[in-house]
Each structure stands twice: as C-alpha cells, then as structure tokens.
C-alpha cells in the first residue's frame, strides 16, 4: 500500500482523463503522483512531479523542476519504488525548508 | 472447472489439470449476511483498477454462472472473471458467440434460478438490447456490469455513457458507479436488491469505461473468505424454470400474443407490476448503500447533480470552491432506476442554481432531473457542461460553468 504520511489529498485526476492523483506535502514542498488509464494493467504507472506550494491551500502549487530530487517528470512502475522515492523526498523537503529559512529574507 | 461437486457438466477439475484434492475457492468461503458484509466486516484498503475491483466484487458474490462476449473496455473485467473461474469462485463461465446470444443465454440461466452475471460495453449492449429489454418482464434477476463507451459514429472506444439512456425505460434497475470503490460495492448491493421477492428484476451497474476500469484507485474490500448467500431460485416473483424439462411454449401461449383486449390488459398490468417493483427496490438500496444519493454541503444555493465519473470531477470542483470560501452542494445519484426523486427534491428545494454535468451528448440526466423537479423548484436547472466521444471534463470546466451560471442567475 502507498505511504499515507503527509498525504493531504486523494482526488480524481483534475485533468479529467480518469485516474487518481495523490498530493503529498511537507512544509512548502511536496509531490503529486498520478496514475492514468492504460490499455493493459501492466502499463499502469505513476507519474510524479515535485511541487512547490504557493500558499496554505492544497490546490495552489506549481511544478518545480529545480530541486536535486528531479529535473523532470518521473515515472515509477511499482508502488514499492514510488514509496521509496516518497520516503526519500520527505527528508529532502524537511532539509530544503531548513536551508531556505537560512537564506536572507526579503524585507 | 469448478464442477467437482454437484455439477452435471462432464469436464472435471482433473480434466483441467487440477490436482485430485483441489477444492474450488468458492467452497472455502463462508456465507455471511449481506448487511454484515456491507456494514460490519473489516475492510482492507487496496489500490486497484476498476476491472480488478469488479473481480473482487465477483469473488464475494457467489456467482453460479457468467456468460459474456468480449468488447472494449469490458474485456479486461471478464478476463479477470476467467481467473475467478479457474480459481473456483465462479461455478460456470463461457464466452458466448456474440451479444444477442450472450444475453439470451444468461436469461435462460437466470430463469433456471441461479445467480447469473454478464458484462458488456456500449455497442455490445446495443446489439443485445432486444434480449436485455425482455429481462425485466421475464423477472430474471441478472446482474450485468456495463463499462460505458461510445456507441455512435464516428467509432471510438472512449468513455461516454449515452447507452444508459437506452435502458431508462426497460424496467431494469440501474446504478451508476463513480469510481473503483463503487464498482466493488454496487454489484454486491444490486445482486441482493434484485433477488428480493418483491423485486425480482435484473440490475445493471454502469461505470464510465477506461477512466475507472483501466485506472487504479483506492478500494476498501471485505475479507475474501466471506461471500453472499446463494440465490434461492424459489424465492422470487415467478417460479424458477426446470431447464432440463422446459415448457415447450412459454410466452407464446394464447392469449398472451393474440391481438385482443385480454392480451392488452395482461401486458399492461404485467408492465405496471415491473415498474412498481423498480420502485420497491429503493428500500433495499437505501439499506445496502446507505441511501440512493450522497449529498455534500446540504443547504447550498448552488448545486451540482451528477452520476458516474462526473461526480468525481464535480467533487473536486466543490472542494476548490470551498477553498475560495464558496459553498457549493453536490448530489451524487447512486441509483438511476429507481430514480431518487424525493431525495433530490429535498436536497435542492432551496437551491437557486442547479448544474448538471454529463459524459454524453443526449443530456439524459438533465432530462430526468427536469422531469421530476418540474413545477417543484424555483431553482434554475442548467444543462452542462456536457462532453462526449471520449472528451475529458477537467475540473476547470465545471468551475467556469459555475462562474458563468452565477452571472446569468443572480
């Protein structure tokens, strides 16, 4: 089963193409994992984006391809590999948040 | 293959390569009261496709016979049914020659008093429509899974639920699944309701193909060691038929098919009883499904009324409106027949705007809602957004329609 820690929303993929989207959040960063319909069950996979939230709402975020976790959209073909990545990302997001707080803040 | 015990079929499990001491999976299951299955058993969360959810539902449904003919996007589910047959959870299973044959054969099986399952999609359903429309009058509690797809030209295999409109006036019980969870729960509830003595009607559980059948979603399932009680063929509105000694003439006997006033009266009273039975089924669905509808944000001024996948998209639109501080209500229709007229009226009687998004060209749900609310609500009912032929309905589309609707109706 998929990790449920930091899972803030499970919804039908808002693109309307079917499938399910999961949104994880740790502080201001997070990730979306979506699986969409495929002709064969074996072709079903997860597409993962690292995201940065704009405010406290769940739906307000932008895709973030500037972290060391991912420079583009990632694909995972098993729940196990997705879970491993999610766990790794949680730790990274915590560290990233701490680092960003150390940067000079805009007045 | 699952015929090692109590079957007259010639082939045995050993013929099919099973060990001599093989016990069909279905015979290892324990029978449980349906209400306990639906509301009390613990559930395990799985992340599975709609086709796999259908398989898990069938595994627990104590199916005696399944007959189907493959068609996209139904084929995946009936492939899964094949695995269940191999494991011994479905007692008999075969692929018929095409849909007229499928739906005629399954009718014969159901008349014999056994729990009978079939499945199809769009064009397959249309091809077998003559046989399907005879099921309610024959009082055959068949369960049919219908994975909706385009039926009209130009050809497409994408989701579109226009085919449901062709079943609205047949006397069949109709449920419309929103997601994989519903496609697990609804068939079990439909079987139990359809086999009640005061119902004895076929039931169709429709789901929007591909979007749900071929994508994974969270499904809470009951332990697989429990199954529904078997169908009691003698406990029904019409007696089961002895298929080994069938009556030579069934409905062709005079005066049924003679053109005289007796036949007219017999037909009309019979059909009145069929449609009365549809209404009587409502109490069972309320019990098994916790209601014919699900209502989010009761008392709102704006309401979205939807069934099937449109509910999921509307649900997200309602959530996003909530983030913006706007309360929008949602009415999910679980059953289309019986139509939840009173529940719908009670929910929207104070509404100013009622939006009806659909995945079909005809707007059949809009027509249904208008027909039951006519003269009973001051709210304005808007027909849309409507997408079809496999088009998608992004959440933004519903949000834009809501915004426009608020400008049109102050």
Structural commentary:
The complex is a heterodimer of chains A (107) and B (410). Chain A starts with 6 loop residues before the first strand and ends in a 5-residue tail after the last helix. The radius of gyration of chain A is 14 Å and the shape is globular. Chain A has 107 residues and is an alpha+beta fold. Chain A contains 1 helix and 6 strands. In chain A, strands 1, 2, 3, 4, 5 and 6 form a 6-stranded antiparallel beta sheet that branches. The longest helix of chain A is centred in the C-terminal third of the chain and has 24 residues, at 79-102. Chain A has one helix at 79-102; strands at 7-12, 20-26, 29-35, 46-53, 61-63, 74-76. Chain B has 410 residues and is an alpha/beta fold. Chain B folds into 2 domains: 25-227, Thiamin diphosphate (ThDP)-binding fold, Pyr/PP domains (Rossmann fold, 3-Layer(aba) Sandwich); 294-408, Rossmann fold (3-Layer(aba) Sandwich), CATH 3.40.50.920. Helix content of chain B is 37%, strand content 19%. Chain B has 15 helices and 16 strands. In chain B, the strands form 4 sheets. Chain B has a 7-stranded mixed beta sheet with strand order 4-3-5-6-8-7-14, sandwiched between helices. Chain B has a 5-stranded mixed beta sheet with strand order 11-13-12-15-16, sandwiched between helices. In chain B, helix 3 (50-59) runs parallel beside helix 9 (180-194). Chain B is globular, with a radius of gyration of 22 Å.
